[in-house]
Every structure is written in structure tokens, then in C-alpha cells.
Write a sequence for this structure.
């Protein structure tokens, strides 16, 4: 799979990172001599943040190439993404070239927020709008607008790289999200200009309040809840009439002059000038990853999109012990000592137990039917420090199995093969309705015994049976 | 400390819960015969969600009383909060009464979004606006408008119950956040009315995209980052001119008729009708707690407000062993077996180790100076299942101390005194710069030895020195 990225700024670089980290080869075309450096910076942010969303390893990165010739870059690409400046004459010229050069099955898409598909295709180009949001490598939303059959094919491809395609029912200037953003932006300029609040105070009005609601539910579902048992009609009856009596400023356009630019740029410096853009980007990314990881627990919004994508990521292979977990360490797993906190060694080993349960047939359906394993005891040895971004793998050996008791030994390995930690764990098979131990059914016993037999010749791992502080 | 809540709907109930769970007595005045039931439902949501924000226990709940007589409810209150329907004549009547009845130092505040302080005080009432956001017990933002000295006192009190006061520099219709919300609401109605998208699709355009950005940074800081190294002026230069060319619909008011109400209510039913309002509330609350807990890691936005509040919550008392942790179990700590996941037993025990380190002088400053303890080994026994919402405490016994090695035994207790789990842990004192073990300084040794001496007569705890699977 190969993607061609035309225009390598913040948006093009974000596209490149999204494809590359999902295993696609990426060919860049951008005449800017700085393109390679700029894309490298976006990629380094993406490598730092994106894998932290998943509790599984992402695919091997694809191959990144830079091309001076557009037709070289486009050759063999299944996806061609244009992210050049918002000038219609430039877009017309490039999309005419892309339509001529790209294979007949290639999707050709523009990142434009300013133009509708009917404008882009007016001179015969074969193009849809695929409008992403910054940072493209983390935010799932993509607005698709244009030919329905092409948009449907595009949606499948984008879902495969972890995105959330939203196909518009009709084209409209600025699509959906930017219309909402423009409305807020205009009103915000008035509030600043009139001295009601500063840029920092306005940001606080968002992030301490409705911003937290919108990260998970959006506007209408939030208001449905606010309407209470009486429902959406009741809410509309309350809030609707305010529209007949609009607050004046909302309807006017503020005069956009140097004084307004200086006022806002100055307040923004006061608010955020103590951090570089690079620091702000990393803070933003860490927070985005944290928020989206939190939403995985309920599966709401972006959390649901990540769960869907994660389920499609391949399970690691056995070699020779089963590899029961493989993942990169998120930034949020580090603590005040500058390394992965002790809790997350157990978190990854616990996921390894979950995976081993799946391997012996104790999957979600099995648990739903009322049987499961509970952990009775864990012993963890912390042998090496681990840092954010590292790839960890876990292998699992069966120490013993009798009746209701299954004893496992997880080895947590760093990328260089060093043992970062071990965890010995005792699991008891349970009847979830009675909340009592119970014998597992025969098919599960058979699968456990297959693992025991396969591992019969292995030595007992170092550290098994150890008590805390043993010499 | 006593708060009087006048009007006990969703907003008044949210205020009651916020004060009550922060240890204030709360007196309710609401002539609605259903008030007690309604407030009970809000309180039950709040008790389920709010304590999950904190890694410490909240204060003991205050006393909740209901009053038929307004002056009884107001008597002795330091804070009086009015949340009655948005009719100016009703507000005038109530605030005249409250001004007469309340003590001279009491803050009298209105939850109004529709009226400015100048309107509320036009007939002599002593009132400020303290405008909260639903759910009041979780969202930190409060807009304060009115007399500056009163707003400053109000801000201190609200910060003390975990809120984020935002004081407006000038009064304006609808304050700040609702002006932004109104702008988005109007534009959204157009998008639905014109068939560009459904309510669900519009919500997705928010929650898979800019909603995730706004939960942490707001508008201006997000755009500052988007502007890149060129900064805010560069961003303004790009985005600003679009204002001169406004998208038409933004400027018009859509006709608000039955057809529009039916269209939106019908789409909202399709989107969310499979869940009751109560289920949606709990989903919203679990997500809010998850998002805000994630933001604690960076301290951004709401995460910072929670950290500040948490630092003010009292540490538990020793009895006779030091109590090194005390907290309620968040909803997000439960797993597919319907109980607290094994990982979080270690998480709370790890916090207990952190607290014990503080008690022997190894606090944040000590770690910053380059010394700390690392965990070398943990052994956990899981003895009882624990459920979301339960209060857990941890006591810590020193098993042994020699040179660089400190061996602790944490006992995790349920509210009924039963032992839920134990964790034996071996800590090594480290030089953080050399990343090597090192002897602790004398003052730390002295404090450890004080604990050893104080616990000299205690028996060795059951389970200490145990290996996994030992009979």
C-alpha cells in the first residue's frame, strides 16, 4: 500500500505520519527545500504520541521517500492526498496533473477547507474532499465530500488507518466543523475586542466547561441529557426562542485591523509565550492521547474508533513461548522518577493474562456466559527501567495447572531482548454467578494441557517461586 | 459551613451535591413536592462520579435538610445560590427576600444565564451571578459577574469546593460560554435544517475532532499551535480575512417552527433513543471523570484544578499504623469481571508507597534534588473483590530496613475493615543521576528508624514472606 502526499506542511506531514505509522509506504512531493525537515518534525511528534493510543503494537512503519518529480511520487499510489495552499488556480493545476498521472483506482483527495468538490472538479479533475483536523496523526475526524462511490471507498481506507470518516450529505462552504469553528471564532473576537475577557480567560471558559462535554458527546446529545426525562423537544422549547432574540454581536463581523491582531497576539503571548510551539504540540498530543485512552473505557466517540482499529491490529506470533502482549509505552505511563511506573508493569502483564485466557478459549463470550479466571496472587520483579515510547513484549509460560488453579510466568521484554520484569501469577477459575471457584470445562482444560505439553521441556524460569527480598 | 440552595432542579441539585460532597451542610428551599426526589437523583449521580476524580478521600458529607420556609433555609448560610426559572420578576422577588434574610457576610448568587447583574440588582438586591455548567458537580467552570469585591470572595469559596471561577471583566448578555454555545447552536440548526448532516453526524464532527482539542486547550491556544513557529499573528493573517467573507447562514436566524423541532427531536431519538436519560447521564459522567483524570497527568485545564483541590484535601490519620492512602474507587477501575481490576490494587498500593516516602522525608523536593526509592519487587495477594464507589484505605508496616533496602507491607482495607488485599514491597534507595543504589541521608534513616521503633511490638503480618501459590 502506497500513499502519495502532495504538499508537506503541517497537514501534509500529518497525513504522511498517519499512513506511514499504519504500515503504508509514503511518497512525498513538495518543492519546498525545507519539506524533509518539516515532515521529519511532524513524524517525530507522531511516533512519540500515536502508538500510545493502542494497547497493541502498530504495524511496522512503511517506507518514506521524497520525490522531485510529481509523476514519480504518484506512481503506484492507492491514495493521493493534496494539501497545498488554498488557491483555486493552484489546486486546478495540480488536480489536472494528478488526474492524468494517478492509476484508475487511486483515490485523489484534497485537504481543502475552503473549496467544495464542485469547485475542485469544475475543470474535469477526479477529486474528492478529505478534510482532516490538526494533528492529523491523532484526531480521527475526516470530512468526506464529493462523488458518493469514491467517498465510500475512501471511508473504508481511512477507517483502516484508524480515522473516523464523516461523509457530508450535500456540499457546503467550509464543510461542517469549520462552520462551527468560524461561528465561535467570530464571537470570540468580539468578546476580546470588547474587553469582556482575555484570550486565556476565553480558553478557560471552554476547557473547564463545555469543551469537556464536547470531547465525548458533542452538542445535540449533551442537550438531550440537559433536557432531562422530558427529552429533546422540551430542551428545544426552552432554548429555541432565544434565537428570535439574537445577541447583537453574533450577527456582525468585527473590523479586522492591526489593532485587533495586536490585541489578540499580545494576549496570546501572555497566555502561552512561556512555552515553545514544540512544547505546546507535545502537551497537546499527550493530553489528546490521555483523553482518547480514557474514552476507550466506555467506547464513546474517539475511544470507540480506537477500539475498532485496535481489534484489527494483528496479534503477535508465538516464538517459541506465546507472545501475549506487545505495545509501545505511552507518555502517561511515566512517573516522577522519569521511567515507567511500577503500576504499568502489572497493567501490561494483566493484559498478557487476558490474552492467554483468550488463547485457551476464555474470551469475551466465555466470560459473558458466566465463567472466568480471577487473579489470586502476583509477584513482580522489576529488573530494568523502561521509558516512554519503548516497545515491550510479554511471553507467557505455564508453571503449573491443576483443577481450578493456573499458574503463569510472564516475562516482559524490551526491544533489545533484555528482561525488564517478570510476573508470576496465580489464577483461579471462577463461576461468575456464584462468585465461587469452579472447575473449567473440558475444552479449556484440553487447551491448557496443550500448552503444558508444548512447554514440557522448558526449564523453570529464573525467579519463579521467589518471595520478596529472597537472596 | 452551610449553603442554602433556592430552587432544586438539575442545576440547584448539582450545586447541592457539589457543596454537600465537599463537607458543607446544605439547606434546600423548593416548593416543588418532587424536589426531594429530584435532588436525590442528582446526588446519587454525584456520589457515583465526583469522588472518582480524586486520588484522596473527599471530606465527610455535610448534612442535607429541606425547608418549607425560605428564612429557615437561609439562616446561617455563608452561600446562598438561587437557581429558579429565568423570569426577571420572580428573580427580583426572591433576591429581595434573600437580601433581607441573609447574614451580612453571606454571598448571594444567581445561576442565571439570561440576566446580567445590573438587571438582578436593579431593585436593590445584593446579588452576583455565579453561572455554572451541567453537571455542576463535575464541571469546574463557574462564570462570576458583578461586584468585584464580592466576586473575589466568592472565587475563594468556589475554589475551595474544587471549582474554577472565571470572573468577567464587564457584564454582557449570556456571559461568555453561552455566547459561544449560542453561536454554534444557531449554525448547527442551519446545518440540520438544510440537510447537510444529521444531529448524530454533527455531534461526530465535534467529538472526533475539535471537541478533543477544546477539552484541554480551548480556542486561542489551539490556534497558536496551528500557527506554528510563525505564531499567532501568522495564524490571524491566514484565518482573519475569512471574516470579511462570512458564510451566509451564520448571519441569519433560522425560522424556529414545529417542522424544525420535529426534525431535530426525531434525529435525536434515532441517535440516542436506545439509552435512557439516566444511562446517558452516567455515560457522560464516567467519560468526564475519565477525561479529567487523564488531564491530571499533565495538569492541563480541569486536570490542574483537580490537582490543586486534591492537594488541599487532608491526609488520613495514623491509627496505629500510618494510613498511607484513602480514596474511593472510580468507575473506570472496574473490568470485564465486574470488579476492580488487579492493576489498580497495585496502583493504590503504589500511591501508599509514595505517601510513606513523603512521611520519611522523600518528597517532591527530595526527588528533584536527585534521590528517590525505586521498587524492586512486589507481591500482591488478592483476598476480596472490590467494586466501583467503595472507599479503600491502606495501612503500611515496615517489615525491615537495612542500608539501601526498605521492605514495606501495605494492607488494603475495605470500609467494613475487611482486608481486600496485601502488598509486600521491596524498595531500593537510588541516586537518580547515577541511576545506582545509594545510602539515604541520615535524616531519612532517622525517620525510617522511628517507624521501625514505633512498630517494634507489632506481629509480622500474615502473608509476609510468602511466595506465589504457597499453601
Amino acid at each position: 500500500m502506497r500513499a502519495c502526499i502532495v504538499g508537506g506542511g503541517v497537514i501534509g506531514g500529518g497525513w504522511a505520519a498517519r499512513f506511514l505509522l499504519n504500515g503504508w509506504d509514503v511518497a512525498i512531493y513538495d518543492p519546498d527545500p525545507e519539506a524533509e525537515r518539516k515532515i521529519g518534525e511532524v513524524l517525530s511528534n507522531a511516533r512519540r504520541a500515536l502508538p500510545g493510543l493502542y494497547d497493541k503494537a502498530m504495524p511496522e512503519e512503511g517506507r518514506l521517500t521524497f520525490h522531485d518529480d510529481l509523476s514519480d511520487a504518484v506512481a503506484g499510489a492507492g491514495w493521493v492526498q493534496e494539501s497545498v495552499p488554498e488557491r483555486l488556480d493552484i489546486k486546478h493545476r495540480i488536480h489536472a496533473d494528478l488526474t492524468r498521472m494517478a492509476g484508475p483506482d487511486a483515490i485523489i483527495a484534497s485537504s481543502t477547507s475552503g473549496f467544495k468538490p464542485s469547485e475542485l472538479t469544475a475543470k474535469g479533475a477526479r477529486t474528492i474532499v478529505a478534510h482532516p483536523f490538526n494533528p492529523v496523526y491523532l484526531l480521527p475526524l475526516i470530512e468526506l465530500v464529493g462523488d458518493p462511490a469514491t467517498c465510500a471507498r475512501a471511508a473504508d481506507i481511512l477507517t483502516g488507518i484508524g480515522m473516523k470518516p464523516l461523509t457530508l450529505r450535500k456540499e457546503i462552504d467550509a464543510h461542517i466543523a469549520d462552520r462551527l469553528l468560524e461561528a465561535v471564532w467570530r464571537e470570540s473576537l468580539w468578546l476580546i475586542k470588547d474587553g469582556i475577557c482575555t484570550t486565556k480567560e476565553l480558553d478557560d471558559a471552554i476547557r473547564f466547561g463545555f469543551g469537556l462535554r464536547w470531547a465525548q458527546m458533542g452538542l445535540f446529545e449533551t442537550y438531550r441529557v440537559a433536557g432531562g426525562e422530558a427529552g429533546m423537544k422540551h430542551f428545544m422549547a426552552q432554548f429555541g426562542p432565544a434565537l428570535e432574540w439574537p445577541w447583537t454581536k453574533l450577527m456582525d463581523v468585527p473590523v479586522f485591523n492591526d489593532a485587533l491582531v495586536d490585541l489578540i497576539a499580545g494576549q496570546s503571548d501572555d497566555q502561552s509565550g512561556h512555552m515553545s510551539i514544540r512544547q505546546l504540540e507535545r502537551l497537546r498530543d499527550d493530553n489528546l492521547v490521555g483523553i482518547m485512552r480514557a474514552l476507550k473505557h466506555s467506547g464513546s466517540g474517539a475511544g470507540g474508533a480506537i477500539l475498532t482499529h485496535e481489534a484489527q491490529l494483528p496479534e503477535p506470533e508465538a516464538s517459541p513461548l506465546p507472545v501475549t502482549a506487545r505495545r509501545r509505552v505511552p507518555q502517561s505511563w511515566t512517573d516522577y522518577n522519569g521511567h515507567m511506573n511500577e503500576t504499568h508493569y502489572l497493567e501490561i502483564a494483566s493484559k498478557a493474562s487476558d490474552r492467554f485466557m483468550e488463547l485457551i478459549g476464555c474470551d469475551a463470550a466465555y466470560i459473558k456466559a458466566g465463567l472466568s479466571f480471577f487473579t489470586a496472587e502476583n509477584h513482580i520483579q522489576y529488573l530494568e527501567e523502561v521509558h516512554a515510547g519503548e516497545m515491550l513484549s510479554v511471553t507467557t509460560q505455564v508453571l503449573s495447572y491443576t483443577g481450578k488453579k493456573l499458574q503463569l510466568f510472564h516475562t516482559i521484554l524490551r526491544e533489545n531482548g533484555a528482561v525488564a520484569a517478570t510476573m508470576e501469577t496465580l489464577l483461579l477459575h471462577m463461576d461468575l454467578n456464584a462468585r465461587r471457584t469452579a472447575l473449567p470445562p473440558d475444552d479449556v482444560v484440553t487447551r491448557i494441557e496443550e500448552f503444558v505439553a508444548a512447554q514440557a521441556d522448558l526449564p523453570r524460569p529464573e525467579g519463579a517461586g521467589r518471595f520478596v527480598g529472597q537472596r
Notes: The radius of gyration of chain A is 27 Å. The mean pLDDT of chain A is 93. The CA atoms of residues 396 and 410 of chain A lie 5 Å apart.
